[in-house]
Amino acid sequence: xxxxxxxxxxxLRNSVLSIxxxxxxxxxxxxxxxDAGRTSxxxxxxxxxxxxxxxxxxxxxxxxxxxxxxxxxDVSVLSPLRKKLNLALHLSRGDKTPTLSxxxxxxxxxxxxxxxxxxxxxxxxxxxxxxxxVYLFITYTKSVDDKYGDPILITLNKESVLQQFKQNGIIENxxxxxxxxxxxxxxxxxxxxxxxxxxxxxxxxxxxxSFHVECHRGTKEGTLYFLPEHLIFGFKKPILVFQSSDIxxxxxxxxxxxxxxxxxxTKEDEKFEFxxxxxxxxxxxxxxxxxxxxxxxxxxxxxxxxxxxxNQQAAQGENNEPSALxxxxxxxxxxxxxxxxxxxxxxxDDDENDANFEEESGSSDGSxxxxxxxxxxxxxxxxxxxEEQHDEQHEMEDAEAxxxxxxxxxxxxxxxADDIPIELDDDDDGDDDEGSxxxxx
Length: 441
What we know:
This protein is of the alpha+beta class. Among the domains are: 1-40, no CATH class; 57-192, PH-domain like; 211-308, Pleckstrin-homology domain (PH domain)/Phosphotyrosine-binding domain (PTB) (PH-domain like). It is 37% helix and 24% strand.
């Protein structure tokens, strides 16, 4: 009972005490009502003494818990301010119109009303390299009192959001899919008059799949999101948002083996360069450009034309200029007519070729005489070769004759004279030298 009374403002506490004095049994009822209220709305801070309920306060600095459509506790807000805040989708106190608020200690830090008109885009986006987190990104025309104008960027931890949904009885304890949380938040947004798109998580069957690439803008590293109707670069200030219909052209520049740059030009002639994009992302970006019918004014076609020109020049060079092998073959055919390059055979008496050789090698600096000397040396070499071959032939014949003579002598000395017929010289002139019975050529 004390915890109940301590969290009520003095006027309300006196009213409760007066009822309890008259009906003591009402103490347990008040306590149950208080506990039930805290359990069903535990994403908000307990009521402070300065807070009022119902229509007793028209201040936009506090909200009525009974008007809350949906809320999340302790979310990380990155823009337009950086701190842990509570997110609430609720009805305003005055005219009960849907309102989106970021709260701290129950007080509004930022509020947007007329959500159907003021919110221009709301989307869930993946966090690069952090699979456990999701961005909620919202752009709007104006906030209450025009206090802020930069987009709202909130980081949602999937596990934390799942636990809050289960504690509040929004989803069953057995459910572990974060997509169920996304589906619920989208339905609540529709009730409030605006839509939160989800191009990455639950709409995998869409015809134009969304994607994101890592890149730089100047020295700032960030993520470039390609969405069905928008391009977003973030998330360091300033966050850039483009409608795809407002893009005049895209240019690919600084193309290397690993990376390339994208230069974006809007229809208002604003230029933005996104650099150091991985080459593996080119096809996806190029497909996006073609789907959106954005003009590609890059140098790629010109570079292709230059490349084709070089290829054509190379092809013409192959057709018009003989290769080194062909050129060498032509030179050999033109300079060695009538002879074999390997020196296998030469015509010994080719006077006509000798004359042509002398004519072609003639010059005014005395090269005729050197040519004649070279020919004489060549002729002398041929003659020496013939003589050497002739001497070898005679040596072979002499060797064969000696072998025949030795064989015959062996037959005369080692065999029976009666068995071997021998013709005797009938002449008695005594010239035994010439009648040896062996003939020589």
